[in-house]
Structures
1.
Amino acid sequence: MAFDTQAWLAEARALIGSAHVLSADRGDDLSAYTRDWRGKFQEPALAVLRPADTGEVQALMRLAARSGVAVIPQGGNTGMCAASVPVPGGRPQAILQLGRMDRIFEIDPENNTATVQAGCILQTLRERAAAAGRLFPLSLGAEGSCQIGGNIATNAGGVQVLRYGNMRDLVLGLEVVLPDGERLDLLRGLRKDNTGYDLKQFFIGAEGTLGVITAATVKLFPAPSAGSVAFAGLDSIGQAVRLLGAMRARMGERFAAFELISGDAVDLVRRYFPDTPALLERRWPWHVLMEAADGGGDEALREAMQAALMACLEEGCVEDVVLAGNLGQGRTLWSLRENITHAQQMDGGNIKHDISLPISRIPAFVERMLPQLRQSFPGARPIVYGHLGDGNLHFNVSAPAGVAPAAWQERTGAVNRLVHDAVAAMRGSISAEHGVGQLKRHEMASYKTAAELDVMRRIKRALDPQGLMNPGKVL
């Protein structure tokens, strides 16, 4: 029997209200929901569904299961791998947009937890936690629009993973609606619970392919009262790795962030943001941006940071360094790191890689890969930066001068093979914090073992036997 679009839409509208079921047939503009953030993927959707609570999500999932409609959970749609937009062909696909589910149920300072709906904006949670004297440490460029459910579904990382871990480390409990509409209540604020399988881990990083995350209990931490930021120049990545070890040994748990930035990345930022100050006296091939934080005073922390850096200078772990004198100067230092992505967008075409490696192997990887790229793709401009403290590099390759962005994107497969094969040879991962989505789905077979893929498919079949959840993603 042919699928009756109008009957399905009418039933969905009866469940959650007509205003919250958007569809092209009545003139609604769905482009903001059906196109990924990078503008690489766009396919039509049957509807955009905007539920207000978990009960409405359950009702919509029961409707989808009964009618065979695929469901694509979507948060802020800020992901890098097109995991939250439709794929070509197949059954009708409805986007389940969770933005209306944005309540913060509880900030519990004594337990150092927050319980929120999946549609809660990351920045909102950070601000509410700060008002209670607490820190929610996940911080990334899209925090003003990304949502907690999406952060969990992609296992987001950010700049403070070195100290606090990624999203998987920050989640204590989840509420999930399964593909058949059943509610799975794992919403507990416990740090110890050894009663069988840790079911929440199936859904963290699964990119909405196993169920819909509707709420979460996450860890909070005492808000730091002091911070200190430094920017250093180095001759090599090997020197940066030595500096990381030396600073962690001296600063301990106070050491929160350690970002690697290539000289080419700094040059690119200065080209498009000419007001960026010259932070060091000369150009260095590599830089690191470091931050420490604790519950003491700014001056005491700054003195400790200065003493550690002076010792590193004497040991040859660093060549040149500037230490921010106050909060404003610290923000200036961070602005250079934060503007790399914007500068790349302004510069034109680049092929992005979000890779992770054992920290000890990163120098060898970069030293081999840079000349190989330039030999295989003359004029290519590698822009390397990222979270060296946790082994995650954004190893992006900008188009040669004069090459149109579209023409450069046609080389994506060849560039990816060169980079990803080298990553795999060093026992690394082709996705550190951006996920797989539909962008990297076809590469999974090359970089995951047959046994790993088989187990993943068994889990998918067990939880989603109809294949309703986010088809065409991950597997």
Note: The CA atoms of residues 233 and 282 lie 9 Å apart.
2.
Amino acid sequence: MKSILIITSYFPPETGAASNRMFHLANGLQNQNYKVSVITPLPNYPTGEIFPEYKGKFKCTTIENNITIHRLWLYASNSKNKFLRLFAMFSYSFSLIWFFIWNKIPQTVIVQSPPLIVAFTNMIFLRSKNRKLILNVSDLWPIAGLELGAFKKNYSYRLLEKIERFNYKKADIVLGQSDEILTHVRSLIPNKTSYLYRNYPDFEVAELVLPYPSEGKIKLVYAGLLGMAQGIFKLCKQLDYSYLEFHIYGAGAEQKKIETFILNHPELPIVYHGEILRTKLHSELLNYDITIIPLLNRIYGSVPSKIFEYARLGLPILYFGGGEGESIVKKNSLGWTAKAGDYEALNKVISCIKKSELTLEFKKNIRKTALENFDFKTQFKTIKKLI
């Protein structure tokens, strides 16, 4: 039985796209009779605090679904202070090095990036040990940070660019979750072996029904991270509520601002439901007409995994982020798109959607497209060949 190690900064019980991506990868490998182990920090995302059941621990090793999971100490923080966040990344890197020194490392290692510095640590240390390194790139940093306004083009940014290039160069194989990521990698390292590996979901789907009457306002839902990149707080302020009611699930940096806004504007039909388990969320989402997938700014290389997850549920998508994600929604007739950052255009699109159009047949067609084109098991065959 071949052994494989996955190194990631996010893993369940943490929530979010990165956590789900690495869980499905680990589970998929385990189901194909690989001996899978995972190294990840003590759970802390997105709150920036170690989860209560893990507090006070330096290391925690468990076996879950026949996967050995090593959770290592880090200084947890989601502070806006760049130095604190940088220290958090370094602390995890130090824990990784300590683990590498005292433990046997499998010949094949899959490394998640970003964070760049954590990936850099793995590339330096494990490359010297002659391990086969597969770099799984889910977002382009530091480019994404620049587009989000987190970075400026200064010495620090140029240093991160050098680290990024180093990571691509030292990886034996680069997996990118979008065509834009692969294009960027090949522009830096032209002969690098690279493959498209999207974040397709792997879960059983419930029977589609229409549990609500067709009249009334459109029930629009957002579920996911309430972070700066998604811009849900601004969305709450900019939406035209003449045609819809807005429901929100999730947690993150903007949560308190959103809750305060709702409290100060009781006349607006906005409901915050908090954060719930992903399995329960899937059944909850079937009660809504449309889901919105927004990005505050168009981010090169970014394709939100919610596109594939919600299409599998049969939930019509209103995509508001531009780029490759917009092209996927249009090409596969998964719903509607609005020009990224243009709230007037967004409200115009919403005003043209008739609730009578949101039929059971429409939703079944979306699910059918997802099952045929966004299949985890079919895509996974490529990974097996690489490993």
Note: The longest helix spans residues 82-102.
